[in-house]
Amino acid sequence: MPDPMRIRANMAGDKVEVRVLMSHEMETGQRKDASGALVPAHFIQNVTVTCAGRTVLTAQWGTSISKNPFMHFRFKGGKPGDKVAISWVDNKGERRTDEAVIAGG
Amino acid sequence: MKRLTFIALAAFAGCASGPSDDEARQRAERVFRESFTHGNRQMAARVEQQDDVQALCTRYRNEPPRDLADRIEAAETADIRYPASGKFLGDWRQGERIAQDGYGLRFTDPDTKRPNGGGCYNCHRIAPAEISYGTLGPSLYRFGALRGAGEPVQRYVYGKIYDSQAFLACSNMPRFGHNGVLTEEQIAHLVALLLDPESPVNK
Amino acid sequence: MPLCRLPVLAFAAALPFACLAQQETQKEIERYRQLLAEGNPADLFEARGEELWKASRGPKNASLEQCDLGLGPGVVKGAFARMPRYFPDTDRVQDLESRIVTCIVTLQGFKPEEAIKNPFSAPGRPSDLEALASYVAGQSKGMKLAAPLAHPKELEAFRIGEQLFYRRAGPHDFACVSCHGDSGRRIRLQELPKLTDPGDAQKIFTTWPAYRVSQGTVRTMQHRLYDCYWQMRHPQMDYASEASIALEVFMAKYANGGEIRAPALKR
To answer: How far is CA A43 from CA A92, B100, C125, in A?
Structure first.
């Protein structure tokens, strides 16, 4: 079970500013290990961010995103106290969801 | 092994801004010993005891006076062990692997059966295909193409890798052979990497 | 520690191999750094550190808010800019990390061994000390480093750090000066500051602590020294050891005047 995401969500003016650091190996499938064997691809394919039941961001990732992806983005329509939920699913079907409460500006 | 005479500096009176050089060195040695107490004890023993060259180069901050430098170079030259077979040139392909490999002698390198690497690309540009090279040492690209691969050059390159301080007292470059980091065979492979006309270094 | 893949904007692929290639590489690295300057994962560690700073914990169920970092109990802003320094209550020179540990022990009642149990984050084991250091350092961001060098123990630490900086040892004959004795050099593709040149030191020393992409966490100067000694074929240096603090006092002398950019972002 990978480490929990570190998430920060706060008001920045009328927008919600979110920073999230995910914990994931993001293997491309092209790297070789010490014995010369290919390390199988293992990477996040889909990311969804919701707030108060509304989807505010979706992303489709490939192998060019590196290990421990970090995202920093803003969206409209949230307020302090609302929960922001961030979910990812990887190519092996593993998934993770973490939440954070929006702090005041 | 010839031991170098350790030149003791006369202690001069401490100025108001702190201890004298000698005092500072003694205190630093004590502090050093007390700061590596929880880790690998064997490694600690090795680094706690500086050899003569390390102590002198430390004291003179790698710029020893000329006569001392000459003595260091002479002593290190005498310590070089050339291959018994007289064969300086190994296999450049293995040389490239050794040059790329930084493994060995770190506290996370537990497998002592695995050969040490030379880590040469950390400091040097070598084969043109590798752009991830350091600049702590000079570029070795086209080393053989520029100097030929005659026996004297082979002997020089071998000796330089074995003990760089035989040629430059207090050189930054590790004394790979003298300190037991690389074997004679590994050094021969590196010589080939630099001198073999077929090596990518020279094409 | 092993270098993980460089993130995208990779330039290893098809550069023409000439001097120009190296300048291109440098420009791309700079461009990448600028792109990332806006979003630094270290922000998350700073926030976590602030939470920990204010949380009541330990046998005394106290927070760290009364910690004296040199500017008086409870003053965090600007304290990191004046470290390392002599502290009368412990009668020794201390750096950021060792002073945080002092407060964890004296204010919260933890035993010293407990306080330094997990100094460096590992997968599944995030380090509170790294988060706390990020927070405290971040409260000096933008200020000029002004570590004092006046008290006899500060002067002594400087002299000891100086000796250690030049101390060659181990199977590779390495000293700090082996890599940090000259400007404009690099190890592989990592540029190296000449630590006794204020021109370099002022720019680089003040970027620690930093989120290290290759490590996936914030690392502090304690880790940087520990990691240097790893490369130098030395054993593990004790956390917040006297040697580490002496070296920091030595480096700070040349870095004083530099603008604190911690917690910054590095490979």
So the answer is: 8, 28, 22
